[in-house]
Write a structure and sequence with these properties.
about 775 residues; eight-stranded mixed beta sheet; binds (2E)-2-methylbut-2-enedioic acid; alpha+beta; globular; about 20% strand; six-stranded mixed beta sheet
Length: about 775
């Protein structure tokens, strides 16, 4: 007994010491870069400095003389894993080898990068050395980090501070305001959990705007509206906290921006829209040696792609083989559907013949995970109700596995494979974080694509520049550039040998949506504000044909209060949907059109998506939903039912029945064929979801080379399009995971063909001229 007690004490003591020493096992102290001890001169001084990072103080220790850094390491930090910690890992080494603090920050981790530089500068100062000798200038010119506010006005001694908090996307946003009765001098966001690359754009841009214009009536950053509004509301609360009247500062004041001069550029390839397709196309065209200008109407890259949550569908990848195959019922159900419902569709029947043969061969000699390009094509065609352009489907599928490898090559790994609606087998490839939890694909991919764009010296991005016209040559047959309007209303002309349209769909343009689908009036949208369909108008104005414009997808799991997309991946991983009567009503992993229609038919046209703690533990995405306040929670099924105001016995029976179906791998109620695991680990969570506009399947007509086609089926010279702005590939209903596949596969093809166009006789004379005159692109106006 006595011994046991001592052993326990020892174990606890070792645990405590280890926890303190290793920072509870999760602290990442990044790289430590140092000269060999013998090379460090005796007059080198070692000192530490601290600066505010994203999640708290970042401390850096530097050993240096007046002109050389001999060692640098981060000794203390609590930055976000895989975001801020990238800067912790990479920046000390970069500073050490450049012997300078004037190094590029790590893309997607700007705040942490700035904090490391600032902490290193503070360390140098405290060592009695001059940080300026190492190229140090504070981020934003005068304050700590642009994202923490930029105190542009001189702050009088009697200015007072106030703090305020408001709800952002992922939790509270807290600000500190420095002001007096007439002026706001500084706004710092002191605490937040907003998404890097989305919410952080608002944190960078909104505070300086409030200070400069001395008003809380400022524009929100499009794509980051919730965070922008949270900052504005928090500033109002802080003004009140400081003892002043927020109404006095809530008045419209004209932005004092002078109209910039008209500007004209010459380049090889101009790409309109810096979402997923645009960035992928830019990277490919740049890697083919061309000069690229990427034009973006918003103040940030990412478009709708940054909101994508699920993943990327790809068939026959080595990552699928890491999974046990349990989806035979799904394959057979799909073959049955093909035979029974699409007997008159020749493409579908040919695919079904091939898949039937492949499936029989696999069953005779199972090897790896069962999937094939033809089964992916069959799923996509049946998902699209046979309305898809089969050539485009084949192009998507045949290039999908290579897309995964290409993404790997640029730093975007998607190796976790899961089940999604309409897919017979596990095919959606997803990123995971350092803890092995699946994360949102868009928030993961977009910063990596952005970094790749920024790393390529032959790509220039023009933000806040709205393209409105494709310029044609005198014959009217070939595109020779674009016209756009700059932020201040100035004309921006870009002459180019190839023009690529990647502006995304029109899911945020509710007038355009209801023009084609009056029945969708009043629906919420999951789309980013930039999804206005501009590219479609520009292309049709020069003769492009469109296809399937009335095919607009609604997604059944959109958070009922905020329109935030709740990924279909939750259902693939085991979640169920119940109505307000506590009953299931559909195969949750059916195609979106079917699940949405069934949900709309339920009382109140909404449902509750139910997950358990086991699912939460495996998914950073669900953890984000909890942090955002989307979930209700109960320690058992009945307790959850009470929270949802559902009859407890009914919900208890529904979930117990469902768990039984999972055990027997058969769902006699709705014929679901994908089961994952039972909902058996407390606590249980529910999110209220409803149907919202998600994807516009119709758009510009293209061929397999992404050339934009006219009504007569011939291409418009030099003009390409990729991603959601195009139509045809998804038919009447897109499968989850096919949008990211679409923008990656067709974005790559567009970039490659736009580049190759410049080297062929087919290229216009403009192409030849610009090709030789390109490098001289000017800096943005
Ligand atoms: O492709 C999509 O739209 C998708 C994967 C959405 C989701 O539910 O996550």
């Amino acid at each position: 007994m006595k011994n046991q007690k001592w052993i326990s004490i020892l174990v606890i003591a070792v645990g405590v010491i280890a926890a303190v020493y290793f920072g509870l096992g999760s602290r990442n102290l990044g790289t430590s870069s140092s000269a060999a001890p013998g090379d460090i001169p005796s007059d080198a001084v070692t000192a530490s400095g601290t600066a505010q990072g994203m999640e708290g103080p970042v401390t850096v220790e530097v050993t240096a003389t007046k002109d050389k850094i001999y060692a640098i390491k981060v000794t203390e930090q609590n930055e976000t894993k895989d975001i801020g910690t990238k800067a912790v890992d990479q920046l000390p080494a970069a500073i050490f080898s450049a012997n300078s603090l004037e190094v590029d920050g790590v893309s997607g981790a700007t705040i942490t990068s700035n904090a490391i530089k600032e902490a290193a500068a503070a360390a140098l100062t405290s060592a009695g050395l001059d940080p300026a000798a190492f190229g140090y200038t504070k981020a934003g010119g005068e304050t700590k980090a642009a994202s923490e506010g930029t105190a542009k006005k001189e702050i009088p001694a009697d200015a007072v501070k106030g703090t305020g908090t408001a709800k952002g996307n992922n939790g509270d946003v807290t600000v500190e305001v420095t002001m007096d009765a007439d002026n706001i001098y500084d706004v710092k966001v002191t605490k937040h959990q907003e998404t890097e690359g989305i919410g952080t754009k608002a944190i960078e841009q909104v505070p300086p705007e409030i200070i400069e214009r001395n008003t809380t009536k400022v524009d929100t950053v499009s794509g980051a509206t919730v965070t922008s509004n949270a900052i504005i509301e928090a500033v109002k609360a802080a003004i009140k906290d400081a003892g002043f009247d927020p109404a006095k500062f809530d008045v419209a004041k004209a932005a004092n921006k002078e109209k910039a001069e008209d500007v004209s550029y010459d380049t090889d390839v101009v790409i309109v829209g810096a979402g997923g397709a645009g960035m992928v196309a830019a990277i490919e065209a740049a890697d083919a040696g061309k000069n690229v200008i990427l034009v973006e109407s918003q103040t940030m890259v990412g478009g709708n792609s940054i909101r994508a949550t699920g993943g990327l569908n790809a068939a026959k990848t080595k990552w699928q083989d890491a999974n046990e195959f349990n989806e035979g019922a799904g394959v057979e159900a799909k073959l049955k559907t093909a035979r029974e419902q699409y007997a008159d569709n020749k493409d579908i029947q040919t695919l079904a013949d091939t898949v039937e043969k492949q499936w029989a061969e696999y069953q005779a000699a199972p090897n790896g995970y069962f999937d094939s390009p033809e089964l992916f094509e069959l799923d996509t065609m049946i998902g699209g109700k046979g309305k898809n352009d089969f050539t485009l489907v084949k192009t998507l599928v045949e290039n999908s596995s290579a897309a995964i490898d290409w993404l790997d090559s640029i730093g975007a790994e998607m190796h976790n494979v899961g089940s999604f609606g309409g897919a017979s087998v596990k095919r959606i490839h997803r990123p995971v974080n350092a803890e092995g939890k699946t994360t949102a694909v868009g928030a993961y991919m977009v910063p990596i694509l952005e970094k790749n764009v920024n790393d390529r010296k032959n790509i220039q991005v023009l933000f806040s520049t709205t393209a409105d016209k494709i310029l044609m040559d005198a014959s009217g047959k070939k595109a020779v550039g674009i016209h756009a309007t700059g932020e201040t209303g100035n004309n921006v002309t870009i002459n180019a040998g190839s023009v690529v349209i990647t502006t995304g769909g029109f899911g945020a343009n509710l007038d355009m949506v209801t023009k084609y689908r009056p029945d969708l009036k009043g629906f919420m949208t999951t789309n980013a504000a930039g999804a206005q369909g501009q590219g479609i108008d520009m292309a049709t104005a020069v003769g492009a044909a469109t296809v399937d414009m009335d095919q607009i997808q609604i997604h059944p799991t959109v958070e009922a209060n905020t329109a935030h997309l709740i990924t279909e991946g939750l259902r693939g991983d085991g979640a169920i949907l119940v109505n307000q009567d506590g009953k299931r009503f559909v195969d949750e992993v059916g195609t979106r059109d079917v699940v949405s229609a069934a949900e709309i038919a339920q009382p109140g046209s909404y449902s509750w998506l139910i997950v358990d703690q086991k699912m939460v533990d495996a998914s950073a995405v669900i953890q984000g939903y909890i942090k955002s306040g989307y979930t209700k929670q109960g320690d058992d099924y009945k307790a959850l039912a009470k929270e949802l105001e559902i009859d407890p016995d009914t919900l208890d029976a529904t979930i117990n029945t469902w768990n039984g179906y999972v055990a027997q791998k058969s769902d006699p109620d709705f014929n679901r064929t994908s089961f994952a695991s039972p909902l058996d680990t407390a606590p249980y969570y529910a999110i209220k979801v409803t149907a919202g506009i998600h994807h516009t399947m119709g758009g510009i007509k293209i061929d397999k080379n992404t050339e934009v086609l006219k009504e007569d089926g011939t291409p418009i010279g030099n003009l390409y399009a990729a991603g959601e702005v195009t139509g045809g590939v998804h038919g009447a209903n897109r499968l989850g995971g096919n949008a990211v596949a679409d923008f990656t596969v067709f974005g790559r093809i567009a970039g490659q063909h736009a580049a190759a166009n410049l080297g062929t006789a087919q290229g216009s004379s403009t192409a030849e001229t610009t090709a030789s005159a390109t490098a001289e692109t000017k800096k943005a106006a």
